Amino acid sequence: MLNRFIQITLLTCLMPLLVAAAEIPDYRLKDLGGIEHRVSDLRGKWLVINFWASWCSPCLAEMPELERFYQSHKANAEVWGVTFEDSSKQNIVKFVRQLGVSYPILGYGQDPLTGYGQVKVLPTTFIIDPEGLFFHRFEGPITSQDIIDIIPDLAE
User: Fold this and answer.
1) Taking burial as the number of CB atoms within 10 A of a residue's CB, which of 50, 57, 90, 132 is the most buried?
2) Into how many domains does the chain fold?
């Protein structure tokens, strides 16, 4: 009898977690070259999704920091830059090259809304864990160290 009670209690407690796991958004956008990127393709890695625009000076200040993080932690993490731009694709490509950004720039000409929450200010950065679940949100500019400090596997 007690054993049955424990089984039912465990099932009741775990059911919401199983349902939540089934509802992980598979966020997907194309990069400037037309290649589709999906969160589900990155299972096992941390994902940093940064929303930015070229007219946003705090965004520009943090892009070299995101590039530094990307170069240092490619084995465990990916960075996506999601653009909120009205300018031509050629201008965005030129702009990104001038900044020396090599991580994927996504979202040009697409609706950049995310299943991880609304973007109310730029820059906004979402940290997604290796299972594809929302982990942390930054509003405003961040540094490479801010990301390292928040991700348990990377903190030194």
Assistant:
1) 50
2) 1
Fill in the amino acid letter for 74: K
Expressed in angstroms, the distance from the first to the final Cα of the chain is: 48
Residue 46 counted as domain residue: yes
Is 129 part of any domain? Answer: yes
Q: Are 57 and 90 in contact (CB under 8 A)?
A: no
Nearest CA-CA partner of 92 in 30, 147, 139: 30
Q: How many angstroms separate the CA atoms of 27 and 41, rounded?
A: 10
Tell me, yes or no, whether 3 lies in a domain.
Answer: no
The enclosing domain of 50 has a CATH number of 3.40.30.10
Q: What's the pLDDT tens digit per position in 74-89?
A: 999 999 999 988 788 8
Q: Is residue 51 part of a domain?
A: yes
Q: How far apart are CA 140 and CA 142, in angstroms?
A: 7
How do residues 28-68 score in pLDDT, each as one tens digit?
Answer: 888 989 999 999 999 999 999 999 999 999 999 999 999 99
Q: Tell me which residue range forms the domain holding 138.
A: 25-150
Query: What tens digit of pLDDT does each residue of 114-156 get?
Result: 667 788 899 999 999 999 998 999 999 999 999 999 998 776 5
